[in-house]
TrEMBL record:
InterPro entries reported in the protein's UniProt record: RNase_H-like_EbsB-rel (IPR052929), RNaseH_domain (IPR002156)
Organism encoding this protein: Brassica cretica (Mustard)
Coiled-coil residue windows: none
Name under which the protein is recorded: RNase H type-1 domain-containing protein
Domain RNase H type-1 as annotated: residue spans: 70-186
PANTHER family: BNAC02G40300D PROTEIN, POLYNUCLEOTIDYL TRANSFERASE, RIBONUCLEASE H-LIKE SUPERFAMILY PROTEIN
Length: 219
């Protein structure tokens, strides 16, 4: 049996030092990662809080908030849009329903397509569109990065060609609450009749009043 010589005392001491140093560096690395994650979470929370309030569009633009609600058991969906000017005044709102809708993604697409077409019909030519859900928004803004959305994006962008200027924004639930509530009413309260009306619905006026009383700036 071959016996290997024991390392000199000095070499053993150096090995212990190396191991201790490695453990110390590993501990510091994990601590740094923890701090970095905490910093990212804090920044994300600040971003969420900053985007929670509804923000008005620039002068000469209107902002169209789009809301939708899907009842998956019945395969029905409600949709709504609310148009406000640069002072935050609600100019028009509309509500409708869709039947035989198979997925939430389909609801979002149908709602956005309907809202864009509505803005064109009402002759709004400079529009900020705001909708919950970042994937479709990102796909519309940068189609090359989202090939799976190609068909839907081509259809939406073909309608958007008729606008002088437009911008598609991902909106938080808090900032989109008014449109979401109107869309939800079509499904939960079985209000399937479509309509367009001036101003906001009386039953959710407080939501829009609160939007205007909060501090909000141009997105």
């Amino acid at each position: 049996m071959t016996r290997f010589p024991s390392p000199p005392a000095g070499a053993l001491f150096e090995s212990v030092q190396v191991c201790a140093k490695a453990e110390e560096e590993a501990s510091q690395w994990y601590a740094a990662q923890s701090l970095e994650r905490r910093s990212i979470d804090d920044n994300r929370n600040q971003l969420i809080q900053a985007s929670a309030a509804w923000k008005r569009p620039p002068e000469n633009f209107v902002k169209c908030n789009i809301g939708f609600k899907w009842e998956y058991r019945k395969k029905i969906a409600g949709a709504a849009w609310v148009v406000r000017d640069s002072r935050g005044t609600v100019l028009l709102h509309s509500r409708r329903s869709f039947g035989n809708v198979e997925s939430k993604d389909d609801v979002q697409f149908l709602s956005v397509a309907w809202a864009i077409e509505s803005m064109r019909c009402h002759r709004f030519r400079m529009v900020y569109f705001a909708v919950e859900g970042r994937m479709l928004v990102d796909a519309i803004n940068k189609p090359s990065d989202w090939p799976s959305f190609k068909f839907k994006v081509l259809e939406l962008r073909s309608i958007l060609r008729d606008f002088l200027e437009w911008k598609m924004l991902a909106e938080s639930y808090e900032a989109n609450r008014g449109a979401h509530l109107i869309a939800t009413s079509a499904v939960m309260d079985l209000r399937f009749q479509s309509y367009v009306a001036r101003g906001q619905p009386i039953w959710c006026s407080e939501v829009f009043h609160n939007d205007n009383s909060d501090r909000h700036g141009v997105p």
